[in-house]
Fold this protein.
Amino acid sequence: MVVTLSLKDSDIVLGTINDDDLTLLVDNLEEEYEEDTDYYITPLTIDLLEESGARPELIRILRDAVGDAEGVDIVWRRVGDQA
């Protein structure tokens, strides 16, 4: 299934990932509650995901999202899910 990543505050779509990418995010990042679908991503977070075997496409999406910022909030949503 296709999953979109967006900036949390603006809903700007960053790109799409697959279920394996989503599993990697869920397994490696902290969730505040069980149905949590957002993460704060920093350059260090991206480095850790890369070391954990993240696909180059996921890394590119995250690096583009963070850019020169200290970090950004992203949210994931399965395509077809209602907002």
